[in-house]
């Protein structure tokens, strides 16, 4: 089968289209014919070896896909051949991928594979971070970084649905997209002092969805409401950042909460299950519309990942292997 292999951990340029054997579904697994594979920022981090616990090269890249189940491993009873599912499995940038049967979700009625991408990696991440962890409530103010991105767009929609005022950050060229989603304020963090601007708009935000890290992490801490404000850390696209116990005690008494989806699924499956239930309700209510990823051929993967890394992309991206 055709697949995109990371041959060296040198970033997106280390990816090559190769021919490899179709994998086999083992016990508790399903084999999926990939209709569309989701591209995520974690793919960029894996390509540079900066994703904690990420694979060593060479490996077939990608880990999110939607497609048709074509074979079942031993013991699988929860899903049938012919059903379309969305899920995660190592090696998704390929014509076929193996996924754990327990982790796949049926594609919603009337949606195609491309439209289904993002359910777990973007929407569940945004929902779990904002609601059970960030405890977002109607009337709160939330700061959403990278609001035009895959997770960010889902987060803006969710926060608006639950009655929050949304302050979003995005590169200037992406502001119209974020405003159309309903964000109340959009800040170009590259030309404006983010801390000053957020504190001009509010007396502190209740929840920050912190996916950037680096110098931005400190700004997120600075704008969180003293005592009750929560900074939910889900990413480090801009690098590592630190905060000391002294700062948390005296300067910035706020809540700093880490959230990593894989760990949440493993350690708190009830939180993940509740999020999926809520997302299905939001789909029925039309709050969560079919996704509209920008879809490219598998061979364009290196270029698309490089664009994602350089902040040139908007919204969800996908690769089509056929
Ligand atoms: N914890 C979890 O379980 C989990 C799950 C999924 C995703 N994530 C994290 O959520 C974040 C968003 O993921 P995504 O896949 O939806 O990507 P994305 O938001 O579509 O793309 C990343 C965006 O981040 C912004 N950004 C700000 N500073 C950046 C920097 N120094 N380098 C690169 N991008 C920068 C850029 O938007 P602007 O140009 O508008 O600033 C860029 O387009 C990532 O940090 C990812 O690792 C975490």
Task: Describe what you observe in this structure.
- With 322 residues, the protein is an alpha/beta fold.
- The chain folds into two domains: 2-118 and 291-320, Quinone Oxidoreductase, Chain A, domain 1; 121-263, NAD(P)-binding Rossmann-like Domain (Rossmann fold).
- Helix content is 31%, strand content 24%.
- It has helices at 41-47, 113-116, 119-133, 150-161, 175-180, 194-201, 214-223, 245-251, 261-267, 269-284, 301-309, and strands at residues 2-6, 15-19, 29-39, 59-60, 64-72, 84-88, 96-100, 105-106, 141-144, 165-169, 185-187, 207-210, 230-233, 255-258, 294-297, 317-320.
- The strands form three sheets. Strands 3, 5, 6, 7, 8, 15 and 16 form a seven-stranded mixed beta sheet that branches. Strands 11-10-9-12-13-14 form a six-stranded parallel beta sheet, sandwiched between helices.
- Helix 4 links the parallel strand 9 and strand 10 (165-169).
- Helix 3 crosses helix 4 (150-161), helix 3 crosses helix 10 and helix 9 (261-267) crosses helix 10.
- The longest helix has 16 residues, at 269-284.
- The N and C termini lie close together (10 Å).
- The model has no long low-confidence stretch (mean pLDDT 98).
- Bound molecules: NADP nicotinamide-adenine-dinucleotide phosphate.
- NADP nicotinamide-adenine-dinucleotide phosphate binds next to helix 1, helix 3 and helix 4.
């Amino acid at each position: 089968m055709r697949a995109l292999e990371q041959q060296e951990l040198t970033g997106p340029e280390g990816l090559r289209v190769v021919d490899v054997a179709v994998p086999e579904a083992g016990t508790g697994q399903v084999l999926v014919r990939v209709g569309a594979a989701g591209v995520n920022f974690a793919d960029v981090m894996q390509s540079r070896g900066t994703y904690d616990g990420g694979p060593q090269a060479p490996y077939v890249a990608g880990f999110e896909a939607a497609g048709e189940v074509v074979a079942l491993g031993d013991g699988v009873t929860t899903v049938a051949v012919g059903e379309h599912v969305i899920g995660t499995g190592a090696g998704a940038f390929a014509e076929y991928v193996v996924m754990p049967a327990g982790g796949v979700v049926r594609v919603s009625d009337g949606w195609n594979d491309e439209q289904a991408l993002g359910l777990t990696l973007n929407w569940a991440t945004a929902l779990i971070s904002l609601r059970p962890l960030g405890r977002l409530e109607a009337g709160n103010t939330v700061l959403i970084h990278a609001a035009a991105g895959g997770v960010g767009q889902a987060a803006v929609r969710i926060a608006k649905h639950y009655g929050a005022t949304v302050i979003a950050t995005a590169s200037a060229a992406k502001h119209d997209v974020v405003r159309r989603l309903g964000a109340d304020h959009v800040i170009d963090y590259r030309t404006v002092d983010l801390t000053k601007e957020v504190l001009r708009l509010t007396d502190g935000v209740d929840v920050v969805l912190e996916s950037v890290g680096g110098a931005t992490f400190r700004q997120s801490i600075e704008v969180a409401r003293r005592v009750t404000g929560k900074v939910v850390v889900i990413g480090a696209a801009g690098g590592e950042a630190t905060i000391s116990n002294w700062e948390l005690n005296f300067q910035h008494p706020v809540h700093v909460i880490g959230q990593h989806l894989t760990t949440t699924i493993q350690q708190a499956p009830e939180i993940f299950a509740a999020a999926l239930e809520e997302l299905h309700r939001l789909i029925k209510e039309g709050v969560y519309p079919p996704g509209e990823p920008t879809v490219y051929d598998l061979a364009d993967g290196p270029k698309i990942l490089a664009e994602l890394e350089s902040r040139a992309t908007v919204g969800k991206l996908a690769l089509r292997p056929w």
